[in-house]
Amino acid sequence: MENNLINFWLNRKRIIVICCDIFLIAFSYYFSFMIRFEMNIPSNFFSIMLATFPLVIAIRMASFWYFGLYRGMWRFASMDDLLSIIKAISVSSILIILCLYLINQFLGYPRSIFFIDWLMLIVLIGGSRFSIRYFKEIRLSNDRDGKRVLVVGAGEAGETILREMIRNEHLGYNPIGLIDDDPSKIGSKIHGIKVLGDKTKIPAMVNRHGIDEIIISIPSARGSQIKSIIEQCVKTKASFKTLPSLSEIINDQVSVNQIRDLDVEDILGREPVKINFDSIKEGICGKSVLVTGAGGSIGQELCRQIANLNPEKLLLFEHGENSLFYIDKELKETFPILRSIPLLADVTNKEQTRQILRQFRPDIIFHAAAHKHVPLIEMNPTEGIRNNVLGTKNIADAAIESKVDKFVFISTDKAVSPVNFMGVSKKIAEQYISGISQNNSVKFLSVRFGNVIGSTGSSFRIFREQINNGKPITITDPRATRYFMTVSEAVQLVLQAANFGKGSEIFILDMGKPINIYELAKSMIFLSGKEPGKDVEIVFTGLRLGEKLSEELFDDSCEKLVPTDHKKIYSVRQENACDFTVLFENIDELENMVSRLDETQIVNKICEMVPDFRRNELQRMLS
User: Fold this and answer.
1) What top-level class would CATH report for the domain 144-262?
2) Is the pLDDT of residue 505 over 80?
3) Which of 90, 137, 572, 595 has a 20 to 30 A CA-CA distance from 438?
4) Can you give the pTM of this predicted structure?
């Protein structure tokens, strides 16, 4: 019964539109004659007009129906609808001319009538459609309830978001005004919404119009631009959100559904990473891929992106039960066709690692399993060496035995001129990977990068927790800087490097400029709607054991950067070759020391293997 009523109402509205169109067709045809004959139609032409009325109306209506003019909802009329109107009127005009010619009415018929009628009918039909949309939007804007919104950015993204808010009442947005720094736009209107001023007017406009939420709709904005807008937003009591950056937007389409909270990544404003997706997919599609540390921050993102490349199967190698459970669950829900196999295993267990690789025979291994927290490894160096050095040795040796095609070791900038046990463990692991890649069929390569935004235990997460809990933000040193990269772009570049790596290379990723941790903390406080020093205190605690003031991506005393085919990826050329025979012997000795838990000998052996290690540490302590 309810459906019948809906169909009746829709049909009734369609009948009204059809009747209006018939009237407009007749009016346009009649008035075209009036214009042509200066408001005085001769009797013979008046007779022709009356005689051809039924033909003109019939052809026009048939054409309108054919081109779908009665299938759309005119309150949502768009440029595509206008194009359909022009096509329908143009085709029907041509058909009318042909019919008049065939019935011998064309001779003596004023030719200009066709052009006048064509143009006038486009204006009348198009105008009637778009007036429905205009008055509908005016009524909605006047009657609209919901969150009172100020949109920052009167460009294409701002226009799209504004149009969607106005059309879809159920979204719960009531756009009140626009903000834009372009002086030529101030005072103009988009969809009836006025551009009220530049970003400095945000606090005044929020107070004057009772704004509930500010939406920053400038996907192309740099971090500095976003930061200056946020500084104005913080002066108000309104919440503020943003659209994704250009690198996050899919198919160049923006939508209200993409509006999200601002994050520190928006302020960093890094240039979007561009990768050759087709070549990466070609290297992964149909292959068996194993990821160690699959439950960690890097490992999880590797699994997500690899799963999207249609591997034959994805092996999730992880020793943490909970983290393995959650990444396996996520992949099975997101990629139901994917054959993902959770493997609760530990790379430090040599026999277990060999058995898994013999059983599943992966084509590619991404080794992301590692202990990474510097202060913890400083206090537990034996465990750091066991996991980061011997675990890497175990999985790499098993890869050779199982004839893996490619092995990618995830390294870190802390391996460069290391001053802590975490860094030196990754440096020795890097050296081992370089050593066994000599004269070996497996393509071994390492990828070195810095801190990952939002990873477990990162300064981002710690700062956010401190802000949310109303605690002071603790910073080691106001001069401290670090390289940062989002986990998504880091993994994209790892996959790209893995794709064109031929073996025996160490790649480093272009991390951009190092970021001052103190400035980062202040930006995060602004993002929370608070002011540094006023709402959130910042406390300096001094560098922790094993920390540097700044990190390096390569050692310019013994390493040279070589450009690759990707502008954000460099290959590292080692100037001083390592004696790999001695290295392998030393690692075997380390393995015996770890089995005996002889920490004193382990530390002494590490200092022997990496002579600069203790000197770097002493220089850090004296600086």
Assistant:
1) alpha beta
2) yes
3) 595
4) 0.66
